[in-house]
């Protein structure tokens, strides 16, 4: 247990044993009796410890969780009505989007037709009013013309 040292003799290696002194129990004083209404204050609990002391205090009950509320039953008819309403709203929204798309497509097609008419009309106007073509053109009166062999005769 102790390292061997040449200067220590077995008598010098003696060990002192220390023993603890017991604690004297506390004086027990009875709790004063206080008159009180029953049920308003929790009961006092006393516990006797192994060394004879008495510990007095209020007993604390653990907090109880509140019971879960039972869910009310929902009828199948109510569920079906709610789902039908959601479906109806989805269909209405889809139809609204569809009509918006059709309206936008119609406006696009109308603008394309108008653009084509303006371009074609401009091309015709350039052909009619241009002076780069025939200068000695022949005026033909269609009401007086007679059609013979694909020729106009006046």
Which key terms come to mind for this protein?
alpha+beta; elongated; 4 strands; 154 residues; two-stranded antiparallel sheet
Structure, explained:
The structure is a single chain. By secondary structure, the protein is α+β, with helices and mostly antiparallel strands. Helices cover 35% and strands 10% of the residues. The strands form two sheets. Strands 1-2 form a two-stranded antiparallel sheet. Strands 3-4 form a two-stranded antiparallel sheet. The termini are far apart. The model has no long low-confidence stretch (mean pLDDT 76).
Span of the ends, CA to CA: 150 Å
Give the number of DSSP strands: 4
Mean pLDDT reading: 76
* Secondary-structure element pattern, one letter each: EEHEE
| Low-confidence sequence ranges | none
Layout of secondary structure:
Layout: E1 44-48, E2 54-58, H1 76-129, E3 146-148, E4 151-153
Antiparallel strand pairs: 1-2, 3-4
Concise summary:
The chain is an alpha+beta fold. It is 35% helix and 10% strand. A hairpin with a 5-residue loop joins β1 and β2 (54-58).
